[in-house]
Amino acid sequence: MRGGASTDLSLPVHIAIIMDGNGRWARQRALPRHAGHRAGVKSVRATVEHAARRGIKCLTLFAFSSENWRRPADEVSKLMNLFIEALQREVAELHRNKVRLEFIGDRSQLGDGLVRKIAAAEAQTANNDGLHLVVAVAYGGRWDITEAARRVCRKTVDGDLQVEEIDEEMLASEMQLVGIPDPDLLIRTGGEQRVSNFLLWHLAYAELFFCDTLWPDFREADLDAAIDYFSARQRRYGHTGDQLEAAEC
Ligand code: IPE
Ligand code: IPE
Ligand code: MG
What we know:
Elements: E1 14-18, H1 22-28, H2 33-53, E2 58-65, H3 73-96, E3 100-104, H4 112-125, E4 132-139, H5 141-157, H6 168-172, E5 185-188, E6 207-210, H7 220-231, H8 241-248
Parallel strand pairs: 1-2, 1-5, 2-4, 3-4, 5-6
Bound molecules: 3-methylbut-3-enyl trihydrogen diphosphate (2 copies) and magnesium ion.
C-alpha cells in the first residue's frame, strides 16, 4: 500500500495537472496568447510551493502535448523559449527547496538548447528528497504506450524476453514515470472535461477534478479545493463499498 503509519491516506500522493486556459485568459484581457502562457508560469510556481507545503510527494504538470505541435509556429517557438527561460530562472530556487525535477515526453522533438537545460536541471536536482516535480513536454499518452510496445517487441525479437513474461507491470516499466506511483488525482483547469492524450495508462484509477478556473488564475485555494474533493472520495478499485468498510474495522 502507501507506506508508513504516518502516511495521511486522505492526501493524494501524486497529483497530475492539465494546465489549460492560458489562451482564453489572455483573450479576456485583449492580450496575445503568449501573455497567458507567461502568466501561467506564476501559477506553476505557486502550485509547486503549495503542493510541497501540503505534503504532496509527486506533482506532474502537462506543459505541452504531442498535439500542441499543431499550433501556429510562432506560438510554439515562444512557448519553447518560455520553457528555457523558466528553467533558467527557477531551477536554483527549486533546488534550494529540495525539489527533484524530471521531464517526460519525446525529447527528440525538442531543440538542443532546451534538451541541454532539461538534462542539466535533472542532473542538478537528481538527489533531492523533496517534492518530485515531473514536467510533461512533447508528451502524449499514446506516444508513451507505443514507445513501450516498441521496446517490448524489440526485446522479444532479440530473444531477451518471452511473450509470456509480458504483463502490466513489465509494460509499465517501459513507459515514462517509472518508479512513481500512478496519479491519485487529476486536475484539469479551464473548464474542459477531457484528458487530451495525457497519461492514458497511468490515469486508470485517478480521481478526476475539473474546474473552470483558467490556469493563470489557479492558486493555493484551488489546489486545496481539489485535494478536499479527493479526500471525500472512496476509492474502490473494483471492490464494493461494503468490502472496504469491513476491511477498515
Ligand atoms: C494551456 O493553455 C497551455 C498549453 C496547451 C501549452 P491553452 O493555450 O490551451 O489555453 P486555451 O485552452 O487556448 O485557453
Ligand atoms: C492539453 O491542453 C495540453 C496541455 C495543457 C499541455 P490543450 O488545450 O492542448 O487540449 P485540447 O486541444 O483543448 O484538447
Ligand atoms: Mg487549451
